[in-house]
Predict the structure.
Amino acid sequence: MAGLVPRPWVTAAVAAILVGIVLLVVADGTLEVIGFGLLGLGAVVGTALAFYAVGRSEDVARERGED
């Protein structure tokens, strides 16, 4: 099932989560708000990619004739 989700999207989601966590730990004020935003964005993109992978795997199975 490898290759169902484009690798740059996964990298972007993980990077957003990691940068968001770093900003939450180190910064305060406006940068803390940006950290929360990045963390939330990364989580939403990660969840969307999981649903995309499930749908894509069903499409691949349908193309192979598997029911």
Summary: The first helix runs from residue 7 to 26. The two ends are 17 Å apart (CA to CA). The chain has a mean pLDDT of 93.
